[in-house]
Amino acid sequence: MCDQDHFEEDRQQYEALGLVTRKQFGMMLGAGVAMLLPQVANAVAVAESDVTVTTPDGSADCYFVHPASGTAPGVLVWPDIFGLRPAFRQMGKRLAESGYSVLVVNPFYRVQKAPTAPAGAATPIPQLMPLAQALNETTHMTDAKAFIGWLDKQSSVAKNRKMGTQGYCMGGPMAFRTAAAVPDRVGAVGSFHGGGLVTDMPNSPHLQAAKSKAQFLIAIAANDDMRAPNDKTVLKDTFAKANLPAEIEVYTGALHGWCPPDTTVYNQEQAEKAWSRLLALYGKALA
Fold first, then answer.
1. Each residue of 181-199: pLDDT tens digit?
2. Given this model, what pLDDT does residue 37 score?
3. Using an 8 Å Cβ cutoff, are 263 and 33 in contact?
4. Strands 58-67 and 101-105
5. Phi and psi dihedrals of 101, rounded to 5?
6. Which end of the chain is more exposed for a tag (fewer CB within 10 A), N or C?
7. What is this structure's pTM?
8. How far apart are the first and last CA of the chain?
9. What is the helix, strand, coil percentage profile of the chain, to 5?
10. What pLDDT does residue 38 have?
């Protein structure tokens, strides 16, 4: 899961830049507040709201943000193990300002409404593992269908354009399975430091995703690649055999969890690179 060994390094960097004090940094990280997220050039005006999506297992609390006028391709965002929180709201809003109707979900709604990580991205991983372990292939698939179905009922979502989905950490397999669950609606998938994309099981997310009709962006953390160096080759071979376009890259210097701006390993340079590749994918696949 997400590496938390670099708190002091990040604190020193932000303090040296005069951006925050030691106390402010700790408070921001503990609250899950996104820091230094770059603004969107030529951002469109957006409307945002907290919404409830009915699924076969209950009511999911989510955040929905979209351009204030017209229609736009829908995007389903699966957070990391720290769940729906300010950082992901900001990421969703930033994507909406780029021209998409975005639903950011609380994947743990069966147990608890957001926030589900009491200290945001500073919450110890073992404390959150029971939430993650309660989810499985079945919940991924049923939730994907429910969330995509909800998006399709929104007036701000373009019905004549494919949707996208993106997942972070544990959300990577969920994004893969979303493409498999709703193959006729999902045209693009982004996975950022996704965990468990490749397994030796017949229901491995990468095998299920290969049966979709989507294009893929798979951004791999450098330390994840060190732990599982063969995964990138398996992914490339699998998607090539399925004739599905897939951009698969190991992000040098980026540690697991580097994309959300409230994590201790947030790497702005590499996160912005991944963000630009995501926009390129959506611009091509959801046009």
1. 999 999 999 999 999 999 9
2. 76
3. no
4. antiparallel
5. -95, 110
6. C
7. 0.89
8. 33
9. 40, 20, 40
10. 83
DSSP letters of 126-152? HHHHHHHHT--HHHHHHHHHHHHHHHH
Beta bridge partners of 165: 76, 189
Show Cβ contacts of residue 170 under 8 Å, excluding neighbours closer than 6 positions: 1, 78, 80, 81, 107, 132, 135, 194, 195, 196
Q: Is 55 helix (H, G, I), strand (E, B) or coil?
A: strand
Does the bond joining 38 to the residue before it have cis omega, within 30 degrees of 0?
A: no
220: amino acid identity, one letter:
I
What are 154-179's pLDDT values in tens digits?
999 999 999 999 999 999 999 999 99
Neighbours of 110 (CB within 10 A): 16
Average pLDDT score, the chain: 90
Q: What CA–CA distance (Å, rounded) separates 95 from 72?
A: 11
The phi and psi torsions of 163 (rounded to 5 degrees) equal -105, 165
Distance in angstroms (rounded) separating the CA atoms of residues 255 and 276: 18
Instruction: Enter the tokens of residue 23.
Output: 């106390």
Tokens of 272: 């912005």
**Structure-token pair, residue 259:** 């994309």
